[in-house]
Amino acid sequence: MSHPFPPPPIQPFERLQASDGLLINAERWRQAHNYHRVRQNTHYQCLNQPGIVCGLGVRDIPAPSKVEAKYRDGRWVQIQPGIAIDLAGNLIVVPTPYDFPVDLEVATSEPLMVYLTVSYIDPEDLRARDSRDTVRETYRFDQRNSTLEISEIEICRILLEPGKKDVTQPADAFFPGYNNINLRFRRQAQARPQAIVKLAQVTHSDSGCDRNFFNLSYLLQSIEPLYSYLQGTEEAGQVTLTEKSIQEYDLLYLTGQEALSFNKLDLESLSKYLNSGGVLLVDAPRDATALIESTYSLAEQLKNPLKPLTELRRDHPLRVQPFLFAALPIVNQRPVEIATAGGIILITGDLASAWGLDKELTLPRLAIRTAQELGINILYYAWKRRQLIGLQQEDDSGKW
Question: How far is the C-alpha of 138 from the C-alpha of 96, rounded, in Å?
Fold first, then answer.
């Protein structure tokens, strides 16, 4: 299963075999103590995900007087003391404030996103060894304008405008602008979810195929606060059925009005996706008769005819996990209907239209919440189906 923070490598631990007369030298001492450190870090990796524990705030400051005059500009920040834990389970302890210059230049006419990061430094990896009996584990601050290394912890980000302009605090911490310190995307250290669920919209010939796209992100954002064992990605993807990347997604979402029109390559790709554990969700408005009928025909063609949820077991996962439904959510004054088989789920009633904010902001909170809870049941079903099928395949041994 896809996860932004992979589990530790699957390998056995080795510890020093103690016996009378054992000669202790520096290497054996290091081996004996490193065993406990690696085991502790592995325990953290198995149950948690990296991030900031506390502190590590960032504020703008005047340039320190001790630096050369040519470096005294308005792009200095001070990183506050704090603690973080990285992907390998290493504690990063910053004991004192640290003054840091944001000195990356914007080389084009477009703004540049700069990321300030902190990472763990093992004293054993330092070139200059300390001659003292004890050494201090340390850290390094960096600034990047590209994808972060997986071992780095983001402290803040700043969208720099062209020209040497001052870095400042935002007027509104929730909506930082150009050259403002942006703390909104810092990741907190926390318990590892069972999985990060990935969802993508299927782009096809129907002009209405993307009408609920933004509501997919609302659903993904609702997962963690409503069911913390799972998390969603920040945004939904967009794919066509022939893209190899569809295998990365637990659920493919498809909507529109017109009948489905898939060529041979589309059908082969979809069949492979469903057989590997993926789920196709077709979310049809009630008046989309052509889409509904063609979905039934598609399921027949794939030799998995759809059955109404009312005819399936009362404890079917779509109805009971993690949220319990007797009657299904009401959207546009009528309960939605579900039919499913073989990894295809057909929703009649435009469920995704209630996953987010409607244009007039009149949708009742209860309607949104119940629709999101059923959406989470669908995502949970998709994740669990993919996991159970994957565990029966050799290539998925040991994957999350």
Answer: 12
